[in-house]
Amino acid sequence: MINRERMVENFINMAKISSPSLKEREVADYIKKELESIGLEVIEDNAGEKTGGNSGNIIGILRAPGKKKVLLSAHMDTVLPCDKVNPIIENGIIKSDGTTVLGGDDKAGIANIIEAIRVIKENNFDHPEIIVVCSIAEEIGLLGAKNFDIEKYAPDYSFILDSSGKPGIAIIQTPYSAKGEMKIIGKPAHAGIAPENGINALTVAAHAITKIKLGRIDSETTSNIGVVRGGEAVNIVMPEVTLHYEARSFSGEKLDSLLKETNDIFVEVAKEFGAEFENNVVKGYSGYHLDKNEDILKYFEKACMNAEVEYITKSTGGGSDSNIYNEKGYKALTIAVGMTKVHTKEEYIEIEDMVKTAKLVVEVLKEIA
């Protein structure tokens, strides 16, 4: 039923196209042609204009008047390095040559969706109305999903093909998030002649960091400072330091409490040293937790049985376009597509997992029809 060779060729064609966030134009044009070739109505929205990108979200519709509406989505952008990707097939695995990422995150999801719709049409299977969304700028804050007018299409169920792990895995819980910059503003002075006249911003930050909670805080909550930037010269007391901070929690209340505690500690320590503190950390996407009795999970579980893959529910510490759609009131489920070691040059995907995922999507569509 699934045409393995055709799907792999389509995936490799997309993987070879460089598509960093907000520069998805070339792969978007390729996908538009693919969707048009299988008879979908294709639309490009204005998400690119809103985000400063060179492409909007690509939307394809396969009409089925009077039927339920199912949204299938995967994102077009990939993390760096993604220029001159050279996919290699070896022992049933597709990988890069080790100089770039592969881009299975998330072009494998797109290839799965296109192949599943081809199969639906070739076999004249009954199907719901299908809304395909290939989103932009997912990797830099879910910007495509945030600027997609989901209310216009009003899907009954949304399946987001964007998780590592074996086909059959359903992500039922994701965290609330916050991230941004925190800045300590001290006072410069000559480090060798009059250091006592300065306020070392790094010293202030260090004292605060020893008091805040970082790493795994509890089973639901994490906190991290991933980047530290500051300093002008080795002989100048550091006048400013910027910390790039993020926090996540399955509990919105715990996240709010952590953000307040972290802010209060930095404010207090900065005051002790006579420094200033600027906090530009903002809350991002909202988390979600799907009840195991939700219809969307029942449909997916039945599809897994029909596709002969194991149905597994999991939580994850990462976010996806599902977070945005659930926040807007539309039931969305992120499912695994088999991608492995994503965001690294060692990324790969097993062809058999691609086949299983495409078959699973077909079964989801048949089940909801």
* Mean pLDDT level: 97
- Shape category: elongated
Quote the CATH topology of the largest domain.
Aminopeptidase
Secondary structure: helix percent = 25-40%
Q: Strand tally, please?
A: 18
Classified in CATH, the superfamily of the largest domain is: Zn peptidases
Total individual domains: 2
N to C succession of SSEs:
HHEHEEEEHEHHEEEHEEEHEEEHEHEEH
In short:
The chain has 11 helices and 18 strands. The chain is an alpha+beta fold and 369 residues long.
What does this protein structure show overall?
There is one protein chain. Strand 10 and strand 11 form a beta hairpin. The radius of gyration is 23 Å and the shape is elongated. It has 11 helices and 18 strands. Strands 1, 2, 3, 6, 7, 8, 15, 16 and 17 form a 9-stranded mixed sheet that branches. Strands 9, 10, 11, 12, 13 and 14 form a 6-stranded antiparallel sheet that branches. It has a 3-stranded antiparallel sheet with strand order 4-5-18. It has 2 domains: 2-172 and 286-366, Zn peptidases (Aminopeptidase, 3-Layer(aba) Sandwich), CATH 3.40.630; 175-283, Alpha-Beta Plaits, CATH 3.30.70.360. The mean pLDDT is 97. 47% of the residues are buried. By secondary structure, the chain is an alpha+beta fold. It has helices at residues 4-15, 25-37, 47-51, 104-122, 143-146, 150-153, 201-209, 252-273, 295-307, 321-327, 351-368; strands at residues 41-44, 58-62, 69-75, 88-90, 93-95, 129-135, 157-164, 169-174, 176-185, 215-218, 221-230, 240-249, 276-279, 282-283, 288-289, 312-315, 332-339, 348-350.
